[in-house]
Amino acid sequence: MTPEAEQSQPEPPVEETSPEPSADDVPSAGDEVTAGDEAPVGEDSTSEDSGEQQARPEERLERAVRAAEQALIEYEIAVETFRVEVENFSRLHHQRLGPMYARLDELDAQIAEARAARTGDPEDTRKAQEARARVMPMPGVEELFHGWLDSDGLSPEASAMLTEQPVRPPQRVRPSDEARKLYRELVRKAHPDLAQDDAERRRRDEFIARVNAAYARGDEVLLQELSEEWAAGPVPEEWRPSRSEELYVRLEWLAQRKELLSLVARDLEEGAIGAMLKLAPDDPDRLLEEIAEQLLTQVSEREAELAELLG
């Protein structure tokens, strides 16, 4: 509409409140909130209408964030539900079929060893060694003791615990003269009793705790760094983003979270257990029974083959 046409028409009545924006008004995460997003204000608009129109982009952003949060929650529920199903099916698969797989590996190793013993062929011997290596070995002593062994056998702490003897106390730390000097200076300068208000007391309490920890370790370098930090003074308050900037950051985080969940869901679906579940989503127990029948058939065939080689 041209300015002349706009002036020729009667002025519309001023509404007390602006109409509620539609779903099409919700911006995407990549949109920017600028002054250009605000509706133009005519000569007949009041200052109250102008304030409401200026607030609309932020309100739209808030609605977009809330919608994205709800969508992400539903997606997380779906992914977690599928993850639990995969874990449960994997557990059942291992419990019911694990012994059969182990039996097949053992039979394959025995068949390869029997064939190598009969032919004496180096290639058959190599295959037998590879087949035996695939059989799950017994855990070693080191694995059973979970790092309690050192180069001289059992560590002193492990030996003391197994023989019900007291564990050797840690070696006493003796701070250097310079560390003691730095410690005294820092305590004199940063003692919490010198604070003028509660905020300053909390800052000093936190700082003295770090000083005490460094002195307990005899860490002269850290004490020097703490001395320089105190001399520099308190860290100024960090810059705080606007509400719109916070909302945009939130939308970006929600999008990144969705991408990560998509990767998790894809890995679950493309994994061996997830692929099996997709074959029989309504009756996974029946699928386990079918696989068990196939494995039992394979075990019988391997046992017959081994008996023939040994006979």
Automatic annotation (TrEMBL):
Residues 1-12 have a biased composition (Low complexity). One of its GO terms (molecular function) is chromatin binding. Residues 1-63 are annotated as: Disordered. InterPro entries: BAH_dom, DnaJ_domain, J_dom_sf. Residues 213-311 form the BAH domain. Gene3D superfamilies: DnaJ domain. PROSITE patterns: BAH. It comes from the Bacteria. SUPFAM superfamilies: Chaperone J-domain. Signal peptide: none annotated. This is BAH domain-containing protein.
